[in-house]
Amino acid sequence: MTDIHSINLDKLRNIVQKFAHSDFTAAQIAADYWDGATDQIAASRDQFEALLQRNAALLGIQEVGATQPMRWHTLQ
Questions:
Q1: What domain of life does the UniProt record list for this protein's source (predicted)?
Q2: pTM of the model
Q3: Cα 51 from chain centroid?
């Protein structure tokens, strides 16, 4: 399992900005972050969800309603 503290927030912010005009999920962010490495994505999806929740203001994102999986969008 990936250590959540080793995830680079600058890289994460750049990935989030790619979704400026559409909603996204933590799994989509994980897929982009790990460059499609399926084993890493599956192992870290929940960690990315927690990271997005914890750093929403810093990343400039907010939740989109109460959906499952949780959906996010950038504040613009």
A1: Bacteria
A2: 0.83
A3: 7
